[in-house]
Structure formats: structure tokens, C-alpha cells
């Protein structure tokens, strides 16, 4: 007679359980890869050549492009914090701004950071050398730190960092039409603007409301057609014109 009060013991094969779990993980990973591939394709198609910089042969997404992509996928950023940090090195004391925020996409959430230093060539260099503190616009440094945070947050949460030009061109972006940044010694010897100075020029140009034709017409007075060929001595004049000063 069977004892109805006796608990039935069911034996599981540990190996079978482990295999089932592994298969579930692999299936989920494959679905995730397919989703990420679609995200990359759709994200890149939302941008154009003005949202990219060809930096030493690698594509770099600007803050304008990151904002477009973020809006497309419903990426949100919140709990934004900023801090001015005082530091020092062998050349003396300096400050930098650090922005941090939480970036969300569905149930995913990450924390992203963006910084910009008073010593960045963007802001601290002029044709005479290093600018004194009184001549550096601290507001621009804060804005650059915030923009860097947005780019880092959007690209990280969507998984579109470290892209190649082949991936970007597959979305219809023409590499030859993107602003180009180089570090060649010839440009340095000719006192042409640096990569950081060009990036600053490009960021201000995007917010200025001026067209490419406007810029081409203005820089033609310096006998050049490409802003990359600007000389350091003419740089401040172009920036002031873009800012309406």
C-alpha cells in the first residue's frame, strides 16, 4: 500500500538544468544582438554629415547628432549634477567642470559623465599663447562639459560607440562631406588652428544660424576655402563673427 502522506521525490539531472539555462541565455543574447544592430542602423540614418567629424580617420558624433538620436529612441536624462573642480599640475592651479546624469532607455539606466577643463585648447589658446584667466569664458567650458556628457550618455546606452566609417557610410553618411580634423605637422608649422580650435569653431557655427555659404564667403577674405586652413591669427576674428560680436 502506498503511503499517501509520503512526499514524492523527483530527481533532476543537474547537467540538463544547466544546458537549459545556457540555451536560454544564448537565445536572449542573440535577440539582444539583433535589437542592437537595428538600433545602430536607425540611429545613424537620423543623422547627416554635419553631425559627424572625421577625426584622424575615425567618425566622431557631435552633440547635435547625439540629441537627434536620443530623441528618436526616447532616451531621457535626469538628475543632472554639475561641479566645478579645482585641481593642479606642474604648471599651477586650474579648474574643470564635470557634469553627470542618469540616462534611461526603457528599463536600462546608466550614469554618464562629461568634463571640460580650463586648460583645453578649445578655450585657453590664442595667437599670443595661453590666455589669462580673465579672458576665458567660463560659460563655454560649462556648456562643453554638458555636451560631452550628452554624447557619452546617448552613445553608451544605445551601444553606438567606437563605430567605423564603414558602418556610418552604410547609413548614407558621406565621409568626404564631414568636417575633417587632422594632426599633421605641416599644419602646425604653418600655424593653422588645432583640432580643438576647429571643434570649437564647428560647435559655435552650428548654433550661429549661419549657412555654409555664409562661412565660405567670410573666410574667403583670408584666401582659404576650408575652415581647417584657418590660421591661428585669424581664428578669434572668425569666432567673434559667428557669435555676432
Structure description:
- The protein has about 240 residues and is of the alpha+beta class.
- The chain has helices at about 15-45, 65-75, 120-125, 140-160, 165-170, 185-190, 195-210, 210-220, 230-240, and strands at about 50-55, 60, 75-90, 90-105, 110-115, 125, 130, 180.
- A three-stranded mixed beta sheet has the order 2-1-8. A three-stranded antiparallel beta sheet has the order 3-4-5. A two-stranded antiparallel ribbon has the order 6-7.
- Helix 2 crosses helix 4 and helix 7 runs parallel beside helix 9.
SSE topology:
Layout: H1 14-45, E1 52-55, E2 58-61, H2 63-73, E3 76-89, E4 92-105, E5 108-117, H3 121-124, E6 125-126, E7 129-130, H4 138-158, H5 165-169, E8 180-181, H6 185-189, H7 195-208, H8 212-219, H9 232-242
Helix pairs in contact: 2-4, 7-9
Amino acid at each position: 500500500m502506498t503511503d499517501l502522506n509520503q512526499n514524492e521525490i523527483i530527481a533532476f539531472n543537474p547537467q540538463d538544468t544547466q544546458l537549459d539555462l545556457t540555451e536560454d541565455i544564448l537565445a536572449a543574447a542573440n535577440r539582444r544582438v539583433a535589437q542592437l544592430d537595428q538600433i545602430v542602423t536607425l540611429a545613424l540614418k537620423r543623422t547627416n554629415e554635419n553631425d559627424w567629424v572625421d577625426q584622424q580617420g575615425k567618425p566622431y558624433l557631435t552633440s547635435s547628432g547625439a540629441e537627434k538620436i536620443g530623441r528618436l529612441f526616447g532616451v531621457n536624462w535626469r538628475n543632472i549634477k554639475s561641479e566645478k573642480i579645482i585641481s593642479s599640475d606642474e604648471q599651477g592651479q586650474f579648474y574643470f567642470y564635470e557634469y553627470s546624469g542618469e540616462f534611461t532607455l526603457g528599463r536600462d539606466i546608466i550614469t554618464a559623465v562629461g568634463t571640460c577643463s580650463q586648460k583645453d585648447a578649445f578655450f585657453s589658446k590664442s595667437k599670443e599663447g595661453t590666455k589669462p584667466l580673465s579672458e576665458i569664458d567660463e560659460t563655454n567650458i560649462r556648456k562643453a562639459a554638458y555636451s560631452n556628457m550628452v554624447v557619452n550618455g546617448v552613445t553608451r546606452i544605445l551601444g553606438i560607440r567606437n563605430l567605423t566609417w564603414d558602418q556610418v557610410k552604410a547609413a548614407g553618411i558621406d565621409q568626404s562631406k564631414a568636417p575633417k580634423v587632422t594632426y599633421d605637422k605641416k599644419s602646425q608649422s604653418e600655424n593653422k588652428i588645432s583640432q580643438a580650435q576647429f571643434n570649437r569653431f564647428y560647435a559655435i557655427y552650428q548654433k550661429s544660424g549661419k549657412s555654409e555659404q555664409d562661412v565660405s564667403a567670410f573666410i574667403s577674405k583670408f584666401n582659404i576655402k576650408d575652415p581647417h586652413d584657418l590660421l591661428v591669427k585669424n581664428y578669434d576674428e572668425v569666432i567673434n563673427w559667428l557669435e555676432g560680436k
